[in-house]
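Table S2 (continued). Query chain:
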Amino acid sequence: MEAAFSRRIDRVLRKLEELDHSVEVGNEALALFVRFWLTATPQLPAAGASAAQAKGKERYDSFVQALARRLSGSERIVSGR
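Corresponding output:
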């Protein structure tokens, strides 16, 4: 019984290590994307800043809503299962 328990714990630990690696890769990919996006996006003129901020807030709110829909359902862009 003890040997079976030990094997099961080892299996769980390996899965946790795989999960940790996957999360790390995902975080790095997102951070790299954001860094490239920020360096490639030109700065806006001061005259259009408030309109751009309003549009940015609107787009961010849409993003958060889409993310919430994705997370509450079973449809995913990237399938890890």
